[in-house]
Amino acid sequence: MTKRTVYLDYAATTPVDPVVAAAMRECLEPDGNFANPSSSHSVGQRARRRVEEARAQIAARVGVPAETISFTSGATESDNLAIQGVLLAHRDRGRHLITSRTEHKAVLDTAAAMEKQGFEVTYLSGDSEGLITPDQVADAIKDDTTLVAIMHVNNETGVVQDIAAIGECCRSREVLLHVDAAQSIGKVPVPLDQWAVDLVALTAHKAYGPKGIGALYVRPGTKLVPLLHGGQQEGGVRPGTLATHQIVGMGQAYELADAEREAPALAALRDRLWAGLSAIEGVRLNGHPTQRSPHVLNVAFPGVDGESLRLGIAEIAVSAGAACNSTAAEASHVLSALGLSDALAGSSQRFSVGRFTDAAEIDYVIERVTAEVARLRELAGGAPAWCAT
Questions:
Q1: Residue at 34 is within a domain
Q2: Is residue 387 annotated as a catalytic residue, yes or no?
Q3: Which of 152, 200, 230, 297 is in the most buried spot, having the most CB atoms within 10 Å?
């Protein structure tokens, strides 16, 4: 079989859409909108208009007023700003945070940092399919709880949490809710105008925009202590010279990211991949079978070392889980939270499809993975050892 390069790691990052790149290029050239958007001269104000157009595009995608969107360097900063900013702003009321064990490290590491500052954190464990229920959240809320942080689409399994129901639970108890929606845009609807949420982290590079730019939705009236100091940009929430070209790129990317239009094609590709891989004896799907994003497929191959499998199909870009943990030797914390053994979690691969994936690539991946799993199992001695979970 002739090897071909296939990219199935869209959950790690996406290529910049050509339309987005063209919009960004215009903001980099000498006769374009390159000026500092905080400058009062006409060239600066022209750049400012492009920034505000992009803010409106992002706000429109999630159904909120433009003035509720503040730009950051990405979802990681947005998560940090939301969690630290809220806890510090409300520390006189309470010092209790609730989150889940399957969150992105941007949330978990921030929570751990706040614990060192004297805050209490409750880590919820979902069920074996990765779901967190509103009842779990309600049971964990105490008199001094100020914030709940639950992600929308899990970056490793694609499991989609019922944010609408969790939001109602938090609102009824007068507790703020922060949501990491980095993986959501363009894959599943994010109707913030219909959810009882207070803060939402967004990013561009998971939705065919540039790296290094993100945003934080902050519901009007939500108190927040800024992490950075040095200017009054973004209403003082996040100072620093605005990266016009990146902001314009994010705005254009969000305007293109229509989940209702793109999700059916993504789901068809994902399901085609699963139909082929599920024919391999002993494989299992990690995460919820239906309540999940159309672009992520996490599969365990019992009896196969995950790193060996990835090396064997090196021309195919897949991952063990979150890209930010790619150098970590331990098993995925997300899969461990679902109850998988270290061996089973270590055998798992995350495949994620995207806008530029085609059916021929899926068929190639099925053929290559099937052959490589068979080869590795044979080297390991074959059945029944590889059937163990």
A1: yes
A2: no
A3: 200
